[in-house]
Amino acid sequence: MKTIWKYLKQYKKECFYAPLFKMLEALFELYVPLVISDIIDVGISGQNSTYIIQRCMILILLAVVGLSCSVTAQYFAAKAGVGCATNMRRSLFKHIQGLSFTEQDTLGTSTLITRMTSDINQVQNGVNLVLRLFLRSPFIVFGAMIMAFTIDVKAALIFVVTIPLLSIVVFGIMLFTRPMYRKVQQGLDSILGITRENIKGVRVIRAFNKEADEIQHFEDENQNLYTTQKLVGKISGLMNPLTYLIVNVAIITLIWTGALRVESGTLTQGQVIALYNYMSQILVELIKLANLIVSISKALACAKRIENVFDIESSMTDGSLDKNNIQSISQYDPAVAVEFKDVELTYKGASAPSLSEMNFKVLKGQTIGIIGGTGSGKTSLVHMIPRFYDATNGEVLINGINVKDYKLSELRSKIAIVMQKTLLFQGSIKENIAWGNKSASDSDFEMALEISQSKEIVEKKDKKLDEYVEQGGRNLSGGQRQRLSIARAVIKKPEILILDDSSSALDYATDAALRKALRTLPENTTVFIVSQRAASLMHADQIIVLDDGQITGIGTHAELLNTCDTYKEIYNSQFKESEAK
Questions:
Q1: 3-state secondary structure of 353
Q2: pLDDT tens across 365-405, in order?
């Protein structure tokens, strides 16, 4: 609840006016049975048509004023609900962006999407309904009981018994179903995760003829969700019949009691009709309240799930150093680009470290190759430089300063990285490349395209740089996506450029041209090239060889061929294979 109020409190005015106008509407509604009672007892009994018309005009006036109040209340409630959801979604997105890769890996993409969409929509609907009905319904229920007392105390005692019974049913079901709605949302997370995996991996599924298995997996999870929803639906479904039963028994008792008192002359026929109308109003409002309780239960369950994400603190704290005070630090060393000192990395939940005993120093302007078998820790190593993951032991230094001491914005402004899995965003080619440098000039674009070997891609397009790129770059080949991603990194003009296996989809000729072009980067640019191709790293100043999370060799290509068995094995396997071809 505190999470909702945090984003709702700036709409205090709307939170006040929405229920106020709803209660005004309810107040006018409570006068309707009294007017009808007068029509029966005075107008119809006395056959006074003028009186009947006057009272009917009053009913029309009450309806118009009530409708105006209702529309006004709906406006304020909608404004508060949508505003609350918008602010919550904005804050949640910002919070998720601030989490480290460790927390995002733990939570999972599918559950974060559900919280950003379905859960916040449920909260929005809950806020809207609460502001409109949560006070209105109890107001009418207790207002009808009070009005009944003004008509006849003895008959009103039936209301005194009925209302607590109805409250027990309504709130009892609410308390029972609230945790079950949370379980339903968790089931939706699972369904979303499976759906996302199947849509993204449809080619792999079909290639391995696993459609039937995936359909069965989806059906099993869907059946679990169906079972849970069915159970909570059955329990929630008890609310209407139980409330109808209690209210109708009360109505029967009321009519029976009223008939006896009319016969004895204590009540009039119009007063009995008014009492019946008040009981009917209570029935209608409690049904509304019952449905409202269901929506509130869902909203509170969803709010709790959103709150759980907000409660997760990033394991990565921001440093304090920025460009204004970095050079004043005593350990600042502009000659050393990157240094690893006894670095160890253990992923959360892992039983053993993925990297250990990482010790090496990289000077500014050097080109460093990183090679090793699958799972050797190449990507983990370069991801520690921009602090996607923090070292569990040891230090990663940039310019002699621990990366943990930098402000994240300052640290990452020095670094450009092309991920192992390339990603382009929906928009034009120019917009995608400009992610690296929003203020890039035409000459900057020309330079980035030439170095990344993307110039021919652009020139073949009808609209050149303005050519449309579909979401994820679906209308481009894998090699084209990689080259444009490299252009996006190069245009940033970073101090440290990291290419994480970003030429795997390129042919050997294009790869060679790319490596040659990278040598034209400014002299102070340090380049890390992660690759499984020995040919891509042969001309690097230093090559780091990894095996099972440890460094097995550091040196030039010629040195490693003589001193490192792991590198020699990789080199021989690749070049013998090419010669065989």
A1: coil
A2: 899 999 988 888 888 899 999 888 888 899 999 888 888 88
